[in-house]
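dumping the sequnces here before i forget
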Amino acid sequence: MTNDNESKLEKKAREGAFGPTEIKKGEKNRFLGEYEERVIAYLTEDQVKETALYPEIKDVLKSSEANKLIIRGDIAKKHISDYIKWAREKGIRFNRKNSPEFRGNVALAVAGKDAVTQQFGRIPDREEKLQKKGLSDNIIRNAGSLLCGDCWKELMEKAPEEKINYKKAGIFDKLTGANCVGCQNK
Ligand SMILES: [Zn+2]
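..and the predicted 3d for all of it:
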């Protein structure tokens, strides 16, 4: 009886001392070393590696609560240089972090100094989001391309925040509907 009570007490003491710490440690390993309560938004590895950039991250970096941009250390520089540039423009420091203990697929996160009030969590996948907005698949899939006037207009009407991911054909580009990727197989 006495032993039982003692072990219960011990168990409670142990949980008190280590339980939450272990939970927090697991949580931090899922968010690149940050407490979840500090994470404003994040992208998965697949999202960071897309050709297109996520304009949501640019917005989040403008937030008054944004304090740092954290990027997993194994992500190639070509995928992240624009995100780093955005952070610099906003005076937000960035860290690259790696640990064999990291779990999950978070590859880029914007975090606050402390617990934040606005949390967006995982940013929705771009393709799905833009399909819902009614943007043509040819435009969605060809991020980085030069668009003709008509496709540019469609982009500006349906998803203007995506203009960072395309170039508008100028008069010297001699681009017509016939060779604009956005117009193919429409
Ligand atoms: Zn076009």
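The pocket of zinc ion is lined by residues 147-148, 150-151, 177, 180, 182-183 (CB under 6 Å).
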